[in-house]
Every structure is written in C-alpha cells, then in structure tokens.
Amino acid sequence: MTLDTRFPDAKAQGMFFDTHTHLGSKQFDGDLPAVLERARAAGVTRMVAPATDLENARKLLAIAEHQPDVRVAVGIHPCDADSVSGDAWINELRELASHPKVCAIGEIGLDYFHAPPEGFTLDDWKEHQTRVLTAQLELAAELKLNVILHNRESWEDLTALVLPFSDRLRGVFHCYTGTLEQAQPLLERDHLISFTGIVSFKNAGIIAETARLVPAGSYMIETDAPYLAPVPHRGKRCEAAYVADTARAIAALRGEAVEKVATDTSRTALQFFHGWD
Fold first, then answer.
1. Which of 10, 78, 23, 21 is nearest to 56 (CA)?
2. Of 25, 73, 161, 162, which has the maximum CB count within 10 A?
3. pLDDT at residue 275 in the model
4. Would you state the pLDDT for residue 14?
5. How far is CA 25 from CA 57, 123, 144, 163, 227, in A?
6. What distance in Å separates the CA atoms of residue 112 and residue 106, rounded to the nearest whole number?
7. For residues 94 and 139, is the Cβ–Cβ distance under 8 A?
8. Are the CB atoms for 229 and 197 separated by under 8 Å?
9. How far apart are CA 6 and CA 80, in angstroms?
10. CB 99, CB 72: distance < 8 Å
11. Which residues contact 164 (CB under 8 A, 6 or more apart)?
C-alpha cells in the first residue's frame, strides 16, 4: 500500500482520529458539547460520526455543521433496513450525501445476529438487507465515496457482496474481531479493518493478536461510542475521548510508541475519508 506523504507526522495530523463514534445516539443528547470537549482535551482532533438511518443522518449533519472536527457518514444500518422500502429512499440518501460534511457512506452492512423485525421471515430479512446494502454500495461507487461496513455473523455473505466493488471503492470493516488471515483477502484489495476498545479487554485473544500483526496503513482505530468502552472505562458509556485508550492498548501490543499508532492510523484515515484538509 502506498502511503500519502501529505500527512507525514503526528504534529501535522494532531493526535487521535476516532473513525467511528455515534454522536447522534440518544445517549449523548443530554451532554454532547461536554462529550466533544472531553474528546478534544484527550487529543482527539478528528471524529467521524456514522448514521444509522435517514433521520439520524439529518441529525448528525445538523451537529457537524457547527463542529469543524466532525464529519458524517450517511447510510442505513442493516438493523434499521426495515426503515426503508421501495426506491425513493436511495434518492434521499444521495441528496444527503451531497452535503459538504459527508465523508463516507455508512454505517452499512449485514447483521444476522439480531432477530428479524415484525413482518419479516429470516430469509426475507436477509434478502431485504442485501438489497439495501447493494443499493448503498452502488451509490457509494457512483459518488466516489468509501464505505463503513458492519458485520455480525454475516462475514461470508458480506465479503462476497463487497469484494466485487473493490475497483470502485474501499471499505473499512469496523469493529473487527477476526483473524489477520481472515482479513488478508480484503487488505490485499486495499480495504481496511478497524479496532474498538475490545482490543484492550483481558479476553481479547484473537483480536489482540490481529492488532499486533496487521501492517500499518491497513487498520484504523475507533470507539463505536457509546458502546464498547475500552479499559479502564469498561462497563461505562463510551465516548470519543476513549479512542486514546484504545490507541495505547494497541501500542502496547505492537511494542510501539502511542504517537506512532496515532500517526499511522490518522494518516490512514485521512486517506480513506473524503473531505478532510
């Protein structure tokens, strides 16, 4: 992978880049300004907030308009695929994606873990998720935007849908929990994986080993806030500030300075997401 030399060091990039933080979650409605200030105080200089549905995308864009360090990914999360039907929704998503604060399409993907919503059989639900995902992949390719991908017990189906788009877009498989061997076919096609606070858990196992071995330039870091708070915050509401703790955990696993992890992952994120200076 060729690294972009426009972003040579941590000084040029600031420090930490939280590539996946759900700032539009209801859990942040009461204190979002304080959450953002704590993130900045922790050295988080850039944040990507992925949407879960069209309403959430509009909420996030309204937030981002007043926050210079926040960008938005717009998309329909697989667990919210029942919020859209027919064809009109993709045109609304296209319009939202034209906003100057949009940096990617996401969070999109497949989720076979959660039970189908009322009115869907399991097969119908999987088919509907597939249609919604495919439409969004086509839109991302059309708009020359990369995608943030969600996987839950759907790895083979998800990668089978994404890999054919490899010449038209890149994807980051967020909250990655697999092996490096499993990720290798994706990394070879210039896709990425991203680690959450799970990597800091005592029982991280395979995830920790993947974080130790994956080449710089092939991975990013995230919080997935308000979920999956890293040690020493495990069990609490997660915040963007805690991406610094995930970076420290990865640095320890790799035997690297935390500044190197911050620089490597910020550079990778700046290459991946649209619209950052």
1. 23
2. 73
3. 87
4. 63
5. 11, 29, 27, 30, 10
6. 18
7. yes
8. yes
9. 38
10. yes
11. none
* Token pair 């040029």 in the structure block, residue: 12
CA atoms within 13 A on the CB side of 130: 14
Instruction: Please check whether residue 48 is in contact with residue 19, taking contact to mean a CB–CB distance below 8 angstroms.
Output: yes
- Residue where the block lists tokens 């935390």: 258
Q: Across the chain, which distance is largest between two alpha carbons, in Å?
A: 53
Report yes or no: 171 and 146 within 8 Å, Cβ to Cβ.
yes
**Whole-number pLDDT of residue 180:** 97
Residues of the chain with pLDDT under 50: 1-13
Angle at 197 between CA 194 and CA 199, to 5 degrees: 75
108 contacts 148 by C-beta, under 8 angstroms: yes
- Rounded to whole angstroms, the Cα distance separating 178 from 168 reads 25
Task: For residue 167, give the amino acid letter.
Answer: D
C-alpha 75/C-alpha 54 separation (Å) is 7
What pLDDT was estimated at residue 7? 36
Handedness of CA 176, 8, 40, 253 (dihedral sign): positive
SS (H, E, C) the chain: CCCCCCCCCHHHHCCEEECCECCCCHHHCCCHHHHHHHHHHCCEEEEEEECCCHHHHHHHHHHHCCCCCEEEEECCCHHHHHHCCCCHHHHHHHHHHCCCCEEEEEEEEEECCCCCCCCCCHHHHHHHHHHHHHHHHHHHHHHCCCEEEEEECCHHHHHHHHHHHCCCCCEEECCCCCCHHHHHHHHCCCCEEEECHHHHCCCCCHHHHHHHHCCCCCEEECCCECCCCCCCCCCCCCCHHHHHHHHHHHHHHHCCCHHHHHHHHHHHHHHHCCCCC
